[in-house]
């Protein structure tokens, strides 16, 4: 058995921030999950639908691994990324750092992980790996998935080799902190402004505040959009509230990030942004509940109400990001 020593196997709410937390704590940098998410400019929004999809998908964060790249750039961390089509090379990219005493981040499809509670294909899942033996790999996943867990090496290989939406080619990564690390506090304002600029200026109508407005118009049609609304709508609500989002489609995490920032930086813009995202987080949870109820009852009135709240959310989040962009 090969294990990296002194690993803090604390699980968090979201997969990518959980893995980043493990890797950074091993480098001596212990940041809260909201701070990791915010410094990585992680908040976003996407309404994703196409003819080939059974039901629309609502996303509340930047695309997989972008948060990791953002965070490394903001803090001046050395991020080494390995990708390959060779399973043999892929295993070497993981085993070599662990043999040398360094944990490794992996992007994979959660469907093939033995311990995973919900068997759905999701190729953007991220875990930290800190050990292995002849049969199993030892990982850190989110708190809801068990924190410190293990999966068979065969299952891990399938998860890393899977192809489809959001997958990467056996992606693995390590992080090294420089001896003179950039102060995280000094990078808060640039990270917030980067996030705000992207949110306020989406290249297409499915993203950012425009995407929320589009969702407001589409959600009232969801009972007709679905072949199985009793399953699809409650599942959409679960994805918004519990599927590694920290609740309220990542808005709880960003709210808590802004609250932490307001303790460090005296700014009325920060306080206003935090107040608006506190309101937004509550409303997103209400939307999820209305969507679930609509699926269970078949009553369009719940979706009409959800659409009305989403119109308001588009305005609130746009106003919040406009305020934060003035930092």
From TrEMBL:
Q: What is this protein called?
A: DUF4872 domain-containing protein
Tell me the ranges covered by the DUF4872 domain, including all copies.
155-324
Q: Name one Pfam family in it.
A: BtrH_N
The record's annotation in InterPro entries points to:
BtrH_N (IPR026935), DUF4872 (IPR032369)
Q: Where is the Butirosin biosynthesis protein H N-terminal domain?
A: 14-142
**What is the source species?**
Streptomyces sporangiiformans
